[in-house]
Design brief:
This protein is α+β, with helices and mostly antiparallel strands. It is 51% helix and 24% strand. It has a 5-stranded mixed barrel with strand order 1-2-3-5-4. The protein is elongated. Keywords: Membrane, Transmembrane, Transmembrane helix.
């Protein structure tokens, strides 16, 4: 896969499924906690029902956090696809302060610069710490489109 737009779409789909799975898992627990707390079909003692209610509150907080975070990530991902399609990106000369490469199947590289952490989906050549490069990147998610070595 060499098309960056395809990588953006696959990243959006994968992230969406990940958040949908986490929300489904939380809703599964919320449903059973709701049934035990409200209907109490097995006539559990009040002290145990209060523990379930407390667990439900914690699960609800986690669910709300996941929902807000998931929607924010989806909006940023959609904005990235729009910016890439419309050609709205920035070009800056930046010093690389740290690099984190993924394991073998993944070619994704996280690059730390003065502008913050940036994501590079395809590393065409090795990038080294302490050197300056010209980065063309999308501002919404700091996704790097192109990297050029600056001659010293």
């Amino acid at each position: 896969m060499t098309d960056l737009y395809t990588a953006f779409i696959l990243d959006f789909i994968g992230t969406s499924f990940l958040f949908a799975t986490a929300l489904t898992f939380c809703l599964f627990f919320l449903y059973f906690i709701f049934v035990i707390t409200i209907f109490n079909p097995q006539r559990i003692k009040k002290s145990s029902v209060i523990k379930f209610a407390f667990g439900g509150i914690i699960t609800l907080i986690i669910t709300i956090f996941l929902l807000i975070f998931g929607v924010t990530e989806a909006e940023k991902s959609i904005q990235t696809m729009k910016d890439y399609t419309n050609g709205e990106w920035e070009v800056k000369d930046l010093l690389v302060t740290d690099i984190k490469r993924g394991s073998y199947p993944s070619r994704i590289v996280l690059i730390e610069t003065g502008e913050g952490q940036m994501t590079l989906f395809f590393e065409d050549f090795l990038i080294y710490t302490g050197q300056k490069y010209r980065f063309t990147y999308l501002n919404a998610t700091n996704t790097i489109i192109k990297v050029e070595k600056i001659a010293d």
